[in-house]
Amino acid sequence: MDFQQSDRMKKLPPYLFIEMDRKKKAAIEKGVDIISLAIGDPDLATPDFIVEALYKGAKDKANHQYPLGPGLPKFREAVAKWYQHRFGVTLDPKDEVVALIGSKEGIGHLPIGVLNPGDVCLMPSPGYPVYHAGTLFAGAESYFMPLTEKNGFLPDLDAISADVLKRAKLIWTNSPNNPTSVLMDKAFYTKVVAFAQKNNLIVANDAAYTELYYDGKKPVSFLEVPGAKEIGVEFHSLSKTFNMTGWRVGFAVGNKSIIKALADVKGNLDSGVFNPIQYAGIAALEAPDSVSENIRKIYQERRDLFAAGLKKLGWQFQIPQAAFYFWIKVPNGMSSADWCGKVLEEAGIVVTPGNGFGAEGEGYFRMTITVDKARLEEALQRLAKLK
Ligand code: MLT
User: Fold this and answer.
1) pTM of the model as a whole
2) Could you tell me whether strands 202-206 and 168-174 are parallel, antiparallel, or unpaired per DSSP bridges?
3) Ligand 1 pocket list (CB less than 6 A)
4) CATH architecture of 7-45+290-384
5) Quick check: 86 and 180 in contact, CB under 8 A?
6) Could you read off the pLDDT of 185-223 as tens digits, one per residue?
7) Distance, CA 356 to ligand 1 centroid (Å)?
8) What is residue 288's DSSP assignment?
9) Which CATH number fits domain 48-288: 3.40.50.300, 3.40.50.2000, 3.40.640.10, 3.40.109.10?
């Protein structure tokens, strides 16, 4: 028997990165030497000392039972210490931190905890697809804030109508941004806090990429702004900072009542992060800064090489300030989907169509630098041959 999916599922396109992975695998099966610049999944290994911490934790039978609850106290303490050290933000590990099975999981679940059917959730377009999926699953409505070149790819808060704002309850911001790699500074976050206070909004800032920055210019945390903790939370991930995408571990921090709403949803749906993974997370968070510096150095070299190569092609893009994404205008006026199809067919390179991140992404495509320099050079040579 073939059962129908729910109406909510029918409103969603196939999940972008699963679709990209399918295309990649199909091309590999045909024998194409594929270079995948589609998903932001680091090719670098998780540092050994983190793997060792997992191994040690896994050997202890005390860790084999349900983890339950908002995360090990030691994990939440390590998160709070890391926030203090990195951003100068003070968090109470007891009720201002919750461990997540990757930040994607928390981003997807937060709307269920705070939105009612009919509520509006404001989110960037282009934007990480999970903001919209989580909103739909909560029975709420998405309102897309266009990120355009004209606005420096920042949301124009003043352009949102009073009617929308009356029904809005949650706003997603994201910096360093996926897919544009643009940063929000303290002045912009200050504006977001004032806007949220005025309109009774919860702010959820997705900050998964703060540790992948370039030229020594450290991104700030939303929670550094006075008043931010009164109205908001921030989502973080160990995935990108420590090459741990497969491990599924992240955290949300900030306003107690919002953290509790998220933890309560999770309490009903999952049983927590496997304790040995939390111990590995503690090892990562307590590591000397040199660990993330060494990872950054690798991406800095790749970014410089790729930016120089793309400039030679004459393509239009902003040099990423952080994260590992290049957000590029489709060079020849084709649609995003047609262009990405051409790049796959003629160059054997998988890239992500901009419209997969929302309607405002049409006319753009995204490439990641999660392959080594030799492969990036090879990609540039193939791209140069495209007609
Ligand atoms: C991306 O490619 O946008 C990310 O890897 C997706 C994710 O972090 O879930």
Assistant:
1) 0.95
2) parallel
3) 17, 39-41, 104, 178
4) Alpha-Beta Complex (3.90)
5) no
6) 999 999 999 999 999 999 999 999 999 999 999 999 999
7) 12
8) -
9) 3.40.640.10
